[in-house]
Amino acid sequence: MFCLQTRHLVYRYRHDVVLDGIDLQVPQRSIYGFLGPNGAGKTTTLRLVLGLLTKQQGEIEIFGKRLQDDRCAILRRVGSMIESPSFYDHLSARENLLLLQRILHCPRQRIDDVLALVGLADVGRKRTAQFSLGMKQRLGIAIAILHEPEFVILDEPTNGLDPGGIVEMRELLQRLNRERGVTLLVSSHLLAEVEKLATHVGILHRGRLRFQGTLRELCERQRGLQSTALRTGDDRAAATILMQHGCRARSTERGLLLPALDDVAVAAIVRDVVRAGIGVHEVAAVRGDLESIFMGMVEDVGVKEAA
Ligand SMILES: Nc1ncnc2c1ncn2[C@@H]1O[C@H](COP(=O)(O)OP(=O)(O)OP(=O)(O)O)[C@@H](O)[C@H]1O
Ligand SMILES: [Mg+2]
């Protein structure tokens, strides 16, 4: 059973097709990492799912019901934070939550529960204008979960957080999923982050879902997309030699990035580079990062698009 299912979701801003037939399937009780580079269409998708943008084409089902048929009842069971959280700056976290608690008619006890859950119990009375970015993000989560939603949608919740804040956010989301059974749909542009958090992954690229499956399936695919990094004394000259081997290299921070090569090919390339008087400083196998996965998709190297 899917908590969220979309069928052939298409969205255009004027004449630009931003989403081109998205079939999302978010299993119940999963943590679904919605990955994609800037401008891929993540926020647009999440806004559509929450009814914040008017649907143009396709279907959206949440809890097995069409959003348009029972929008209020469905969205009452959903919590969200899209882009930056917003609240009253001159009020404390507790006062912000109190206002919402009255609007949402949830038990007052929930305020202490969520403040404790997001680690803001000690600063519940401080004005939010004085909050750090991480504290604001955590209050955003507290607001999203105040009414005990079964399904929580978060758009880049770790945006702007330092490494410690990212770890805390991850632990908080995993606790919500594990202890409260909440299904999470979390967007991010960082594969490394999603790998540590998600049970399921969807990869969006230029408005199309390029991969959808479990994290394990993605890892298997990544292994197939391993590449080779070559660091030399003169990468530009080395790239010319690589071309002679029919091997197109990409210049990166780690040196030249080549498609995954077998041992014989690596040995032949290194031999020719050294023969040309260029020092070889490092040859390493690199696990496919998000960029190389995308490149693999664009070049259609053994990656099937999601059905
Ligand atoms: N209000 C708008 N009017 C016109 N085009 C828009 C509007 N909002 C977004 N777009 C375009 O739609 C595309 C997808 O944007 P979207 O914000 O959904 O991407 P994203 O994956 O969330 O990116 P990011 O990682 O930067 O948040 C982009 O090309 C963007 O320029
Ligand atoms: Mg976005």
Fill in the keyword field for this structure.
307 residues; Rossmann fold; Alpha-Beta Plaits; six-stranded mixed β-sheet; five-stranded antiparallel β-sheet; 11 helices; elongated; disordered C terminus; binds adenosine-5'-triphosphate; binds magnesium ion
By CATH, the architecture of the largest domain is named 3-Layer(aba) Sandwich
CATH classification class of the largest domain: Alpha Beta
Computed CA radius of gyration, to the nearest angstrom: 23 Å
Q: What's the main sheet like?
A: 6 strands, mixed
Helix segment tally: 11
Class from secondary-structure proportions? alpha/beta
Low-confidence stretches: 298-307
The CATH topology of the largest domain corresponds to Rossmann fold
Name the overall outline.
elongated
Termini, distance in Å? 18 Å
Question: In percent, how helical is the residue content?
Answer: 25-40%
Strand percent estimate: 25-35%
Instruction: List ligands, each type once.
Output: adenosine-5'-triphosphate, magnesium ion
Determine the mean pLDDT.
89
Count of discrete structural domains = 2
* Tally of strands: 15
The neighbouring-strand order within the major sheet is 7-8-9-4-10-11
CATH superfamily of the largest domain: P-loop containing nucleotide triphosphate hydrolases
Order of helices and strands: EEEEHEEHEHHHEHEHEEHEHEEHEH
How is this structure best described in words?
The chain has helices at residues 42-49, 71-75, 93-104, 109-117, 133-145, 163-180, 191-197, 215-224, 235-244, 263-275, 290-298; strands at 2-13, 16-22, 25-27, 31-35, 57-62, 65-66, 78-81, 151-155, 183-188, 200-205, 208-214, 227-232, 250-252, 255-259, 280-286. The protein is of the alpha/beta class and 307 residues long. It folds into two domains: 2-221, P-loop containing nucleotide triphosphate hydrolases (Rossmann fold, 3-Layer(aba) Sandwich); 227-286, Alpha-Beta Plaits (2-Layer Sandwich), CATH 3.30.70. The strands form three sheets. It has a six-stranded mixed beta sheet with strand order 7-8-9-4-10-11, sandwiched between helices. Strands 1, 2, 3, 5 and 6 form a five-stranded antiparallel beta sheet that branches. A four-stranded antiparallel beta sheet has the order 13-14-12-15, covered by helices on one side. Bound molecules: adenosine-5'-triphosphate and magnesium ion. Magnesium ion is lined by residues 42-43, 155. Adenosine-5'-triphosphate is lined by residues 13, 18, 36, 38-44, 189.
